[in-house]
Amino acid sequence: MELEKRVSEAAEAALDVRRLPGLAPYGEAWEMQKDMVRLRKRDEVPDTLFLLEHSPVFTVGRAAADASNLGAGEEYLRSLGAEVFWSDRGGDATFHGPGQIVGYPILRLKGRDTHKYLRDLEGVIVEVLSEYGLEGWHHPEYTGVWVGERKVCAIGVKFSSGWITSHGFALNVSTDLSWFERITPCGIREFGVTSLERELGRSVPLSEVEEKIVSCFSRRFGG
Asked: Are 210 and 101 in contact (CB under 8 A)?
């Protein structure tokens, strides 16, 4: 897969930030992550953050006991024009698609503290939301970021040998939220799903949000 490198201040802090052009098929991006994890284990690449949009896809993580959170089932979801993947990330069922910024950090985890890493990822998104005047928060029982009673960012990660991270976060910016109505997002029934644009009541350029993510992410992980 051809990669378009995004030049940013993060690169100066030993963090390579790359933007995948267009809508990335989930399967290709997953294989790319596996390749990058192998390279990072051998220190052949620096810590890297991939930012991308996926073509419509429902994914299910390791926390799912069965397919019950996929609503009417895989065949029905595929009939809507989406792919379905059972992933090796943490978490349950979610949707990725246009208008959603997905971040895949391939990092050698400092401190080997997986709990802190998840809280730091949430912190990045909370900081980004605050720049738009929104108060994001982390639910004590669930991973991710909420605005009010609505989840705006899902997080699901994997830790490989050598403490290398993969998978990551998915922030709804202008996502068509009707896709989420087909499943039980993250296996959570008591909360709704929202997007940055829905909360603000206006359009927001994805490139603008990406730059804010890069800035906030590099402050936490670039050093």
From this structure: yes
Residues in the chain, total: 223
pLDDT tens across 171-202, in order? 999 999 999 999 988 777 778 999 999 999 99
* Under 8 Å between Cβ of 47 and 221: yes
pLDDT at 14: 79
- Extents of the domains making up the chain: 4-221
User: In 3D, which of 203, 184, 204 has the Cα closest to residue 193?
Assistant: 184
Query: Please, are residues 50 and 103 in contact by the beta-carbon 8 Å criterion?
Result: yes
The one catalytic residue among 10, 15, 124, 186: 186
Locate 34 and state its tokens: 């596996």
Contacts of 160 (CB under 8 A, 6+ apart): 37, 41, 166
CATH architecture of 4-221: 2-Layer Sandwich (3.30)
| Its pTM surpasses 0.90 | yes
Query: What three-state secondary structure class fits 168?
Result: strand
Digit-coded pLDDT (tens) for 57-105: 999 988 876 788 888 899 999 999 999 999 999 988 999 999 999 999 9
User: Are the beta carbons of 23 and 98 closer than 8 angstroms?
Assistant: yes
Respond yes or no: is residue 153 known to be catalytic.
Answer: no
